[in-house]
Amino acid sequence: MILYRSPTLKTKQAISPVATMAEQDWFVTNEGQCREAEVMPQDEDLLRPYRLYRFLTDLEDILERVQDDQVRLTLIRPLVRRLLNSSEWLQLNFLPPDPTTGWSILMLYNEPDFPITIQNVVWSPGSVSPIHNHATWGIVALLSGQEKNTFWQRSHTPDHPDRIQPVGECLLNPGDILCLMPEAIHQVEAMGDEPTISFNLYGETNFNQRFEFDLEHRTAQVF
Questions:
Q1: Among 221, 146, 157, which residue's Cα sits nearest to residue 191?
Q2: In three state form, how does the secondary structure of 40-109 look?
């Protein structure tokens, strides 16, 4: 697999192809347990590029016939690898991180009445996200840099129903894919000296159940 990275993010021309480390897939349960998952073999038709429209069609077929989110993620993640290997332009489109927030999101696909969102997300070195869930299944494919994910689970008490506790972490390298169940809670930190770039795919979000967690006050608010 070939992925692309840019130490400076100044221009897309600055990106050059590099061989990745051994690819690894990860699966995160609703309880925040992160497990290694088998990297599925690629069944690629080398005579036909696997373009975005074909990926979306295959994705729609999976969503229509499969209701279980864990099975969906198992079926979708090899398609994500195939798409990124075949459609180089997806990896070359991103926005430099905002100097104020430390991150940027470039929307690659978001069509009304189709429950899929595709983004390229960039974090500047040292940036740390809020602790949050997505209220939908999600797939993160790391294109460049290193990204540490810390996972949390709810630890209810009578006085603090939104109390959470850490349950583990995972360091993503280029070529790795992270699959998240809808109730998985995580926090992202960009490691090293270069920005991280990831290809993010999400299902239909229940925005009333998407929370940002305050560890100190043991509260959660919709965001």
A1: 146
A2: CCCCCCCCCCCCHHHHHHHHHHHHHHCCCHHHHHHHHHHHHHHHHHHCHHHCCCCCCCCCCCCEEEEEEE
Please give the DSSP secondary-structure letter assigned to residue 12.
G
Look at residue 13 and give its three-state secondary structure: helix
Region 27-54 average pLDDT:
85
Q: What domains lie within the chain, and their CATH numbers?
A: 21-222 (2.60.120.10)
- The mean predicted confidence, pLDDT, of the chain is 87
3-state SS class at 172: strand
Residue 42's pLDDT is 67
Nearest to 201 by CA among 222, 223, 179, 183: 179
The pTM (predicted TM-score) of the whole model is 0.87
The answer on pLDDT for 90 being more than 80 is yes
CB 172 within 8 A of CB 147: yes
Distance CA 152, CA 165 (A): 5
Contact predicate 145/194, CB 8 Å: yes
**142 near 198, Cβ under 8 Å?**
yes
End-to-end CA distance of the chain: 36
Helix (H, G, I), strand (E, B) or coil at 169: strand
